[in-house]
Amino acid sequence: MSRLTTTSYAVLGQIALAPGSAYELTKRMRRNYRFFWPRAESRLYDEARRLVDAGLATGERSFTGRRARTRYALTAAGRRVLRAWLAEPPAAGWAFQYEPLLRVFLGNFGTHEQLLAAIAQARADADELLAVADAVAADYAAGTAEGQPHVHVRALVFDFLFHQAEATRAWSERARAEVEGWADPEDPGAHAEAGLARIADLAARRAAAQLP
Fold it and tell me: Please, what are the domains in the chain?
């Protein structure tokens, strides 16, 4: 079998949490992984087959009428491999893939309305993430969350995503207020000076935070 990828381990981890059909695993991934490792969902079927072929998972096939269903479960070898991967140091480097931010970066090539639309999408995405956070928090409070047995580690991820969403929402408000005052994104005019001041202020805050 070819070398396992991070996505392979993401799928293996979902199977390790609890056995399930491809539909059940996809449903869990959509709630758990989509904000930080969405490719696991799109690769589920291929990766699940690879894991079964490698003896890291079992795939028990059954039928409801003519409809086939495969239920995946972890093997002892799969648990050993997952633990071995977790023992390795994580890959270094911040990789943040987010199209609205890319559109803002290239906003000077578009229109004023297009730039505001990209910022508005960032705000909408943050609101969606916070809405999911509300639902997840309610499930944990009721003791019915699918990750209830793992709440001690799930809370750490909840913390990260919650603050990321709040930071994105706050940024979108600042960016919208700034851009609404521009006549043309392609012509910086007086706004170039404000942009330089913004960068200098943030750099100064960073420097001050590092002082003993």
Answer: 6-87 (1.10.10.10), 99-209 (no CATH)
- Determine the length of the chain: 212
- Write down the pLDDT at residue 173: 97
CA separation for the pair 147, 13 (Å, rounded): 12
**Rounded CA separation 128/117 (Å):** 16
Cα 174 to Cα 170: distance, rounded to the nearest angstrom: 6
The answer to whether 51 and 11 are in contact (CB under 8 A) is yes
Across the chain, what does the average pLDDT equal?
Answer: 91
172-194 burial, b for 16+ CB within 10 Å, e for fewer?
A: beebeeebeebeebeeeeebeee
C-alpha 154/C-alpha 146 separation (Å) is: 11
Token duo for residue 56: 């890291």
Q: Residue 141 corresponds to which tokens in the numbers above?
A: 């409070």
> DSSP class of residue 1?
-
CA 132 to chain centroid: 12
Find tokens 């229109």 and name the residue. Answer: 111
pLDDT of residue 212: 62
Q: pTM value?
A: 0.86
Question: 82 and 16 in contact (C-beta within 8 Å)?
Answer: yes
52-73 residue pLDDT tens: 999 999 999 887 777 888 999 9
Q: What band does 2 get if pLDDT is binned at 50, 70 and 90?
A: low
